[in-house]
Sequence to fold (393 residues):
Amino acid sequence: MSSQVEQRGGIAEVVQACRSVPIRLYRKYRAGRVFLTAVRKLVRKEREWQVPMRLRSPRWWRHGFLSRSAVLYDLDRTDPQLYLSDVHRYFRTKRMVHAKIQDVINNKLTTHLLLRSLGIPSAELVGVAWRDQVHRFPAEGRVSTAEHLDQIAEGDVLFHKVMAGAEGKNIHAVRRIGPSAWNINGTVHTRDSAVRTLSTRNRPMIVERGITQHHKQSELHPGSVNTVRVLTMPDVTGGGDAFIAAAVQRIGCRRSEPADNWTLGGLSSPIDMETGTLGRATRLPDGNVKEWFDHHPDTGADITGRIVPFWSETKELVLHAANVLSFLEYVGWDIVITEDGPVVLEANINTGVNVLQSHQPLLADPRVRAYYNERGIRVGGDQEPLPPDEAPL
Fold:
């Protein structure tokens, strides 16, 4: 009897093992696809930097850094283990927060509604543009895009933004400049051409009322809203309350207008955490030399030594928002400083860390290292691009 039981047990184990083979093969197949996708994306990102091969840095690829980052972080003279690599930036940190939770903040419409419901100062939502109509918010009804343009008061600025998107792309800054004239991203339009321009993106867009920035912020570059980028995360070594990992002043340039976006050519200046004083600015390198600016290259405005207005209030606002929305954990906050104080413009889960690390490596702060390690991101040492057996499933 016992031998029969043992035999049946052995057969069950064989059947179970046979069943697990397709599962293991499928997991390896899926991990392999993730790996290939990651490699393709890194190759695409590498090629976006349009320089000859002699200026590239293949020896840093195996450590997870793109050639442009090697220049930006001066890796030949600094410790690469102190920097979060591009592999981690593109494929690890984007999974720090659960995808279902990310959906809340990645959608600019729900971000507006969430911040307003919590009483956090934020940009004013005017409506949602879709199918050549603007659905007004919070009023009832909708109007055609042409009617929407006619209802903009002369001198007012409205921003049309895609609901989900980053890197300052797909933004239309619309200003009424006359009875039948509108300025969109620096180009004058008639009503018909303005309607065509706003209808080129066949995607829903939110419509925000423009925020008037503090005159000190405008002095940096009046052609863009110059935002403060602040990265927050929980202190896993000290109770879990949010702390500010890094903060920079983003500054627009002619080539980034109407945005101050870093990837479009904007500047980044470090902010002293205690005093709010700005340091020397830099930008993504066009070649193999990193540029530094004490004065704005277009406006000539002083950068180094300037103090961010309402800096204490800005830190207080960001930490309050991060702690109220603690389930989001890892957020890059874009803050506009107005004459009355700071206002949240946007919040981003997968924040670009190179705009922050261009001044100081994130991993120099042990609290930052502890958080990444707590969330399963190995930092320091050789950082290879997602080997198949470690690719997330």
User: Anything to note?
Assistant: The longest helix spans residues 2-48. The chain has a mean pLDDT of 87. The chain has eleven helices and 13 strands. Residues 184 and 197 are 8 Å apart (CA to CA).
